[in-house]
Amino acid sequence: MRIAVTGSTGLIGSALVRSLRADGHRVVRLVRRTAQGEDEVAWDPQRQYVDTAGLKGCEAVVHLAGAGLGDRRWTDAYKRELRDSRVLGTAAIAEAVASLDTPPRVLLSGSAVGVYGDTGEREIDESAPPGSGFLAKLCLEWEEAAGAAEEAGVRTAFARTGLVVSRHGGAWAKLFPLFRLGLGGRLGDGRQYWSFISLHDEVAAMRHIIDTEGLSGPVNLTAPEPLTNREVTAAMGRVLKRPTLFTAPAPALRIALGEFSQDVLTGQRVLPRRLLDSGFSFAFPGIDATLRAALR
User: Of the residues 11, 55, 129, 265, which has the fewest C-beta atoms closer than 10 A?
Assistant: First the structure.
């Protein structure tokens, strides 16, 4: 199968590309420079340009590009960058896909469980409505930007991803060194739910969505056993055999992180209902096994 991928140098994208190529699929990467070779396609999300000639023959397009949510403080300027990198990029990909004489059979576009807002202790699945706040609104706009592909009849799915557990990137890449030093601890009161997923299962779930006809719309990519931050902290100490005595108080997080602290101090208790109902099986459903897999 010929598959196009944006965001191929990121944590998830690079792992997905490796997995697809290992199984003999032909992967073309969308790059923001002059394409070099047949396995690259030029695009510019800001200008909403895609070299559609490079997408011809692709059976699937996976769109994962976007500025990192936790990379910088959420100033007004960075919030615009977060939005534009997702909404403009998704619109460009969707319109490019829709313009092809023979479009791919599936567009899998990134999203996040932040779309649900703060759900407290309530369990939610894909039937839950969007929440409030900047991140929830951003995720909703992000998904809506794929409308051109849906209108063209392309099966379009949204990977609403939770916290990906990996030591090579994302939030956990920052947590592991702290906990190894015995400096880890809960964030705020620790009662907020963290819907996590192993990098292995994230990639496997994306491939499952690509291969499963009829699976479209929002799909939660989270392990089936979401835990509170307090429980995750205990698991980190248990697996790494380190104390977890420190606490990052809510006021300190608000000073350090600004508006993003609201999404750190609140959470979502998300269940992957549609993945499970479609027959997906998690390799690492629990937090201890997930942490050990990330450390291997």
Answer: 129
HSE-up (13 A, CA, CB side) for residue 267: 27
Provide the angle, in degrees to the nearest 10, between the axes of the packed helices 76-99 and 134-144: 20
Q: Provide the domain count of the chain.
A: 1
**Burial bucket for residue 213 (CB in 10 Å: 0-12, 13-18, 19+):** exposed
DSSP 12-28: HHHHHHHHHHHTT-EEE
Query: Where in the sequence is the domain holding 197, given as residue range(s)?
Result: 2-295
**Termini Cα distance of the chain:** 30
Contact (Cβ atoms closer than 8 angstroms) between residue 233 and residue 189: no
CA dist 190 and 266 (Å) reads: 9
Per-residue pLDDT tens digits for 195-229: 999 999 999 999 999 999 999 999 999 999 999 99
- Write b or e for each residue in 66-88: b if 16 or more Cβ atoms lie within 10 A of its Cβ, otherwise e: bbebeeeebeeebbebbbebbbb
pTM above 0.90, yes or no: yes
Q: Give the CATH number for residue 194.
A: 3.40.50.720
